[in-house]
Amino acid sequence: MSWVADYEYTWLERIFMRALRTCGHIPKHVAFVMDGNRRFARSQQIDKIEGHSRGFSKLADCLRWCLDLGIREVTTFAFSIENFKRSSEEVEGLFNLARDKFGKLLKETDRLNQHGIRIRVIGNIELLPLDLQKLVATAMLTTEDNDKLFLNVAFSYTSRDEMTQALETVLQQSNNSISGSNISERLLEECMYTRHSPAPDLVFRTSGETRLSDFMMWQLSGSVLYFSNVLWPQITFWNFLASILAYQRDRYRLDKFRQAEHIRSAQLAWSSDFHSEGVQQFLHSMDEDRRKLLVRLASSKMC
User: Which chain regions cross the lipid bilayer (predicted)?
Assistant: First the structure.
């Protein structure tokens, strides 16, 4: 199964796709909480890992829909740090599935490059098995020059961990290039895993759950939240379209809030000297260090 499906639209789907692109505002960034794989597996009396595998297949459909609709960034919640608490059999099964999918990704880089898809894994990847760290790092480096669609895979991720890592990054430099007066929400935001991504415009969670499960809690204050009862492997093009219509209906309610947040962010940047040479050097060094980590992981030798 490819990371981008060769989805065949019906004539009616094509008409609605064209109408959405022409008549409404399309979100730039959509985040998916892919919930319901295990319940789907139970309902179909199949193995849990097969349920997760079918969930990945549905992600490939969603990426095709997003590409064709003109959505430039997609974030998926694939594996929470909390998932390490599941049975060792299921966790290892999920890791094996990830090994298979990232391995196939590296075999189809020409296809990803053709579509201009860049893979970014956000999360504490050093918690993963070493061979999976290597695959993840290689996938990120291989596609780093693509810029048509950004796919952020939240793997070994929680918001609490993301915020903790951001704070630790700042504190490690607090006696060097930055001072206490430079520390603000604006700086912490730039130290998140999502530093180079805009906040999601739309968050789509399946399976009937109406909670965010420690997913991108820092970034979602101005996002439209859409919840559906459908299980993730059963999501259809029409479910996807319904979420886009909900975004087009509700986005205007958030415009004033987003504008106010933009002004507040600019004020924070000014009051904390965010644009000073020292802070910008710190952020540049942080980006370099993160890339060096990927290079080290990608070039590591497995025992």
Answer: 224-247
Task: Find tokens 């993301």 and name the residue.
Answer: 162
The two most distant CA atoms of the chain are separated, in Å, by 62
Report pTM. Answer: 0.93
Q: Which helix (H) or strand (E) holds 245?
A: helix 237-271
Residue 216, both tokens: 């991108």
Of the candidates 23, 7, 89, the residue with the CA atom closest to the CA atom of residue 245: 23
The average confidence (pLDDT) of the chain is 92
149-157: strand order across its sheet:
117-122, 149-157, 73-80, 29-33, 202-205, 224-227
| Spatial distance between the Cα atoms of 275 and 281, rounded to a whole number of angstroms | 10
- 130-170: per-residue pLDDT in tens? 999 999 999 999 999 999 999 999 999 999 999 999 999 99
Distance CA 174, CA 36 (A): 43
Cα distance between the two ends of the chain: 29
For residue 242, CA distances in Å to 64, 230, 238, 248 come to 16, 12, 6, 10
* pLDDT on residue 1: 55
Q: What is the mean pLDDT of residues 255-259?
A: 86
Mean pLDDT for 48-52 is 92
Predicted confidence band of residue 82 (pLDDT cuts 50, 70, 90): very high
Of residues 248, 216, 285, 253, the one with CA closest to residue 71:
248
Contacts of 166 (CB under 8 A, 6+ apart): 188, 189, 191, 192
Q: Which helix (H) or strand (E) holds 277?
A: helix 277-299
